[in-house]
Design brief:
Radius of gyration: 22 Å
Largest sheet: 5 strands, parallel
Strand order of the largest sheet: 2-3-4-1-5
Number of helices: 13
Helix content: 40-55%
CATH topology of the largest domain: Rossmann fold
Shape: globular
């Protein structure tokens, strides 16, 4: 599908190519907002290595994350799978392999990747200082959906102070950009029809990609939100879990309690007055 929006973000990333030193980039934002799509657009026609962490499902361990990373390395480079017991081994391998290369390295969903190793970020910081930062033609992108984790563990820690070249926070697309998802029909669909659908999907690219331009807003909303296979049908549970991880259940109960309280208050105040 045609890439829409993110002009300023792409310009900021492209400017890094003119630097004479390595760049460490942070890209964050909620799920479905288009972080991975932006990265793919940026690295197209560039030598790139993209790796991603495993989702924090029950039973996930540090070794499982390491083994999956080994599998990704093996697939990317056509080499035998490494038997690594620590992230230092992977980072050293990547550092040596990327030496003197013009390369973009992406660590996607980094909060998942390092979720089971309390020293993960310390090891990454050391690898950056010893290996990656020595290559002036290298760009490393750290990406994740749990923005609070990235802010707390990377942006606000002394370990990465002075090392971040660019911190991109992806927001929803503008109304004009969102309108582009109607394609050739965008000028034939009324503003009111667009408004109804955008009130539900916002400017979230993944949701907008699911629009069927030839269908009415009501039909699109019915399909996306109220059919069991619709992308928005169970989206709250999935997004809430991703955002808050182990605290999701507790925070979810708080939200439900507040929702129940507000409904009860509304019911009492809106109760018809007996005459």
């Amino acid at each position: 599908m045609k890439f829409i929006g993110r002009t300023k973000e792409l310009e900021s990333l492209e400017l890094l190519l003119k630097k004479k030193s390595a760049s460490l980039v942070v890209i964050r934002g909620r799920r479905r907002v288009g972080k991975s799509r932006l990265i793919k657009e940026f690295v197209s026609h560039k030598t790139n290595w993209i790796f991603s962490g495993l989702p924090p499902v029950p039973g996930i361990t540090k070794q499982r994350q390491l083994d999956d990373f080994s599998a990704q390395l093996s697939k990317s480079f056509g080499t035998p799978k490494m038997q690594a017991s620590d992230w230092v081994e992977h980072f050293t391998f990547l550092g040596n392999l990327s030496k003197d290369k013009k390369i973009v390295i992406v660590l996607d969903e980094i909060s998942w990747m390092g979720s089971e190793d309390p020293d993960f970020l310390g090891k990454l910081k050391t690898a950056w200082d010893l290996h990656f930062s020595e290559n002036p033609n290298l760009i490393m992108i750290i990406c994740g959906s749990v923005s609070s984790w990235i802010e707390e563990n990377i942006l606000q820690t002394t370990g990465f102070v002075g090392r971040i070249s660019l911190d991109l926070v992806l927001e929803e697309l503008s109304i004009n950009e969102s309108s582009e998802f109607w394609g050739a029909k965008r000028n034939k669909v009324s503003a009111y029809e667009k408004f109804k659908l955008l009130s539900v999907t916002g400017g979230i690219p993944k949701y907008l990609e699911e629009i069927i331009p030839s269908h009415s807003s009501e039909d699109n909303i019915q399909r996306l939100c109220f059919q069991a296979d619709g992308i928005l049908f169970r989206e709250f549970d999935q997004i809430f879990s991703d955002l808050f991880s182990k605290k999701a259940a507790t925070y979810g109960n708080i939200v439900k309690a507040l929702d129940h309280s507000s409904r009860e208050i509304a019911r009492r105040f809106l109760k018809p007055i007996d005459k």
